[in-house]
Amino acid sequence: MKGKNLQPRLLYPKIFHANGDQKKAGVAILISDKIDFKMKNILRDKEGHYIMIKGSIQEDDITILNIYAPNTGSPQYIRQLLTTLKGEINNNTIIVGDFNTPLTAMDRSTRQKINKETQALNEALNQMDLMDISSKNNRIQILLKCTWNIL
Question: Residue 23 burial by CB count (10 A; 0-12/13-18/19+): exposed, middle or buried?
C-alpha cells in the first residue's frame, strides 16, 4: 500500500463531516466498511466544530461525538457544548476530537498546573460522569487530542 494514493472513500465508505464556511474548522468521522454501522441520526455544527452521529453496530446503539474546540476559550466551549448535548450523551457515547486544552498537568509540555477554566471543564466532565479513559488505563487510548479519529 505504500506509495499508493488511496481515496478515503474506498477505505472508509461511511464518511460523516461538518465543515465551517471559512475553512477554519471541520470535523469528520470515518467508518470502515468492515463495521456494520447503521446510521440513525446526525447532528452537525454549522461552524464545523462538532459532529454527532447516532447509530447502531450489530443492533447495539452507539453515539460518536467528534469535537474540534476553538483555539481560544476552548474549556468554556466544550463545557457549554456538553451541557447543551447532555440529553444526547449516554453510556454508549464515545467522545473524541481536538479539545485544544490539556485536561491534566500531564498533558502539558511544561507540567504547569491547569488553569481555573480547565478545572471547571473537568468538574463538568465529572458531573456528567464522563472520563478520559486514556488517563485511567494506559492500555486503552482514546485520542482526545487528535482531529482525525477512525472507527
Answer: exposed
Look up the CATH superfamily of 8-150.
Endonuclease/exonuclease/phosphatase (3.60.10.10)
CA dist 34 and 19 (Å) reads 26
Cross-strand partners of 31: 14
Q: Are 68 and 25 in contact (CB under 8 A)?
A: yes
- Do residues 68 and 52 touch, judged by C-beta distance below 8 A? no
Q: Which three cell numbers stand for residue 113?
A: 498546573
Domain ranges of the chain: 8-150
For residue 66, the surrounding DSSP H or E stretch is: strand 60-68
Q: Which residues contact 56 (CB under 8 A, 6 or more apart)?
A: 37, 38, 40, 62
> Is the pLDDT at 78 greater than 80, yes or no?
yes
Q: How far apart are CA 51 and CA 49, in angstroms?
A: 7
Cell numbers 448535548: residue: 85
Residue 1: per-residue pLDDT: 45
Once rounded to an integer, what is the mean pLDDT over residues 51-72? 93
